[in-house]
């Protein structure tokens, strides 16, 4: 009893055994029904004009943030000096308070 190792040659098979010829034929005409065509999903590279506009935007944002930081630092410095004055005032008042308490005794 002999075993057949290849598929029968009849109308049952729908694929083309010669893959190279079917691919070259399908590329010139329509795609074969069993061939999947994938689109290119790679990241698109920016051209030079888009890169320079982004760099300009980035520089403008950095300049704005630096200016804002300088303004905030000035305000914080003013608050620190005022706080130091209030701390000195508080110390003076506590000394006066203790002096009054001692004189009342």
In short:
Helices cover 64% and strands 0% of the residues. It has helices at residues 19-28, 48-104.
Quick tags:
105 residues; mainly alpha; 64% helix; 0% strand; elongated
Please outline the helices and strands.
Layout: H1 19-28, H2 48-104
Would you give an account of this structure?
Residues 15-33 have a biased composition (Low complexity). Residues 1-38 are annotated as: Disordered. This protein is mostly helical. The protein has a domain at 48-104. It contains 2 helices and no strands. It has helices at residues 19-28, 48-104. The longest helix is centred in the C-terminal third of the chain and has 57 residues, at 48-104. The chain is elongated. The N and C termini lie far apart (128 Å). The mean pLDDT is 78.
What quaternary form is this?
single chain
Envelope shape: elongated
Mean pLDDT rating: 78
The percent range for strand residues is under 5%
Order of secondary-structure elements? HH
Counting helices, strands and paired strands, the structural category is mainly alpha
| N-C termini distance | 128 Å
Task: Name the poorly predicted regions.
Answer: none
**Total strand segments:** 0
What is the number of helical segments per DSSP (H or I, 4+ residues)? 2
Radius of gyration, CA atoms, in whole angstroms: 42 Å
Largest sheet: none
Q: Which range best describes the helical content: under 10%, 10-25%, 25-40%, 40-55%, 55-70% or over 70%?
A: 55-70%
């Amino acid at each position: 009893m002999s075993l057949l190792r290849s598929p029968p040659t009849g109308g049952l098979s729908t694929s083309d055994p010669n893959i190279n010829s079917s691919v070259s034929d399908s590329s010139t005409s329509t795609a074969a029904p069993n061939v999947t065509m994938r689109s290119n999903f790679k990241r698109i590279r920016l051209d030079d004009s888009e890169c320079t506009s982004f760099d300009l935007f980035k520089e403008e944002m950095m300049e704005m943030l630096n200016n804002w930081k300088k303004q905030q630092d000035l305000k914080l410095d003013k608050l620190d000096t005022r706080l130091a004055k209030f701390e000195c005032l508080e110390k003076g008042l506590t000394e006066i308070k203790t002096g009054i308490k001692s004189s009342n005794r």
